[in-house]
Amino acid sequence: MSVLIKNGTILTAEEEFEGDIFIKGEKIEALGKKLPFKADEVIDAKGKYILPGGVDQHVHFSFTYKGSKVRGFETSNAAAVGGTTTLIEFVNQEQGKGLVESIDEYRKKDADGIAMVDYSFHSVMTDPRDEVIDEIPKLAEAGYPTMKLFMAYKGMFFHADDDAVLKALIKGKEAGITVMVHAENAHMIDVLAKKLVAEGKTDPYYHAVSRPVIAEAEATRRAIYLAELAGAPLYVVHVTCKEALEEIKNAYSKGQRIFGETCSHYLVLDTEDLARPGFEGAKYVCSPALRTEEHRKALWEAVERKWLNAISSDHCGFDYAEQKHMGYGEGKSFADIPNGAPGLQNRLNVLWTYGVCEGKLTKARLVDLFATAPAKINGLGTKGQLAPGFDADVVIFDPEYKGTISVQNNLEGVDYCPFEGFEQKGRAETVFLRGMKIVSEGNYQGKKGQGRFIAGRPFGTAYTEGK
Q: Which of 220, 366, 426, 440 is deepest in the core (most CB within 10 A)?
């Protein structure tokens, strides 16, 4: 099967130009003006933008809270209609099992034959025994070259102390494993949360009060010091505040390889959403917590100036009616609300409408944050770029589309949308996954199981940038 996309405006992380793209089989074979190829299908993309399929490096399809699981890969078609063609899922190490074993078992049961876009995995180390630390290099051999540790969530099985983070950084450096951290001070949060509940301050809004900026900034600084001691790179996920951002900027300016992402909801939502009447604020309980406008402005500047190098969704599909209501009623509080919000489908919609259209992002920068940089960070060598030899993951984007973001047209399988009622400018009109058309006129037309596991390569951008 071959496809010729003609007369579109091609967007890359470096430039934009009018031209054609020729797809043959699963790969991009050529880019240029007035390409002479004949094809099985010819698409005239005049007036449309052509960009690489997105890489969302931060999704949660396997997370379970008090025995209740989020929506899984059976809803990954939501990524496709949002222009994302590759997902990277975090898999917690199961107690008593190895890092690779935990991912392999999850992958076979819950991803292979189910996923509707391509996928890869991060390991989450939860049991830092010496034999588990020694297994870290095997992650690289298995195609899982990234690992996350939670500095937050005191008392939870996946909380990582400083010694676990340091040991992981040292061992990961040997094999090119990029260590990621959820940077929040677990002890600060634990004390504050208990104090607030004791005072009767239990509404969803107090989730943000219990997780202040200083808790994120302190943990970010501490993780940076641990990485400096180990001589290893570090990746800080979901940065939300200017103080944590300053820690990353300062370390990078001194020559440390410190990198970070933020997420689409931190760019357009804030603490006032947590204060919505009734129990509506529970929909916006995520960690780190939503911040105020000054932090949103700092994040927009950071992604445009390359102080942060990816924007993910941090998608976590808990529903509102039942799962979020675990924190509702007598004896319950914000501390009982499952953390996380859905965002898989609307990442590109938010970035285009509230970034590009409002002059906060250039189109080239959007492509880098949405697709190119996440592919490089995670060692996905065939993803994230429009270039010969890369996978034919291609989005034809219609900038003239006007709509409203709503749960009514969402495929995430969740009963609410955190961006409900937001204006939407533009949409992913047509999407190709490895040369297969999986979205047409904005509607999903693929099939279950068409996604493929993509092995990551070790020594990604965190190791190579600046060398």
A: 220
Buried b (16+ CB within 10 A) or exposed e, 219-255: bbbbbbbbbbebebbbbbbbbbbbbbbbbbbebbeee
CB–CB of 331/281 below 8 Å? no
**What digits encode the pLDDT tens for the residues 255-293?**
999 999 999 999 999 999 999 999 999 999 999 999 999
| Token pair recorded at residue 289 | 């917590």
Give the pLDDT confidence score for residue 65 in this predicted structure.
84
Residue 159 DSSP code:
B
What's the confidence (pLDDT) of residue 236? 98
Distance CA 263, CA 390 (A): 26
pLDDT < 70 stretches in the chain:
466-467
Positive/negative CA dihedral, 376, 378, 379, 384: negative
Q: Is the peptide bond between 288 and the residue preceding it cis, with omega within 30 degrees of 0? A: yes
> Cα angle vertex 270, ends 90, 86, to 5°?
30
Say if CB 299 and CB 244 are below 8 A apart: no
- What phi-psi label fits residue 155: left (phi over 0), alpha (psi between -120 and 50 degrees) or beta? left
CA distance 375 to 84: 12
CATH dotted code for 52-381+455-464: 3.20.20.140
Residue 179 contacts residue 168 (beta carbons within 8 Å): yes
Query: For residues 321 and 48, is the Cβ–Cβ distance under 8 A?
Result: no
**Amino acid 467: pLDDT:** 47
